[in-house]
Write a structure and sequence with these properties.
With 106 residues, this protein is of the alpha+beta class. It has helices spanning 2-29, 59-64, 67-96; strands at 33-37, 42-46, 52-57. Strands 1-2-3 form a three-stranded antiparallel sheet.
Length: 106
């Protein structure tokens, strides 16, 4: 009987870990990550996979920067957003790894 109780307790732990992992992934997929350049006048947002979902360019940036400067600033904002998404992905993977996350020990 004790073996059955131990097996049930382990199963309960696995189910709880799976539910926690599902919640983490759902929260992660709903996030957007932003990067800014030109003192915040250019803002890029990506989804969790780093795909660009929006880009806002202030009229001041358009007037103030030449074509090369504007292109560099846009790329800097996008790169910052992509890096934030990559960092969040790495963090999520660490949280989902049973060896590194106390809440998901299996």
């Amino acid at each position: 009987m004790e073996e059955i109780r131990d097996a049930q307790a382990r199963l309960d732990e696995l189910v709880a870990a799976a539910e926690r992992a599902e919640t983490l992934v759902e929260e992660w997929t709903a996030r957007e990550f932003t990067g800014r350049a030109d003192d915040g006048r250019i803002t890029a947002a990506t989804d969790p996979l780093g795909a660009l979902v929006s880009l806002e360019i202030s009229p001041l940036s358009r007037r103030r920067l030449d074509a090369t400067g504007l292109a560099d600033a846009i790329l800097a904002a996008i790169s910052a957003a992509e890096e934030a998404a990559a960092a969040a992905t790495e963090e999520l993977m660490n949280e989902l790894n049973p060896r590194t996350s106390p809440g998901l020990r299996m």
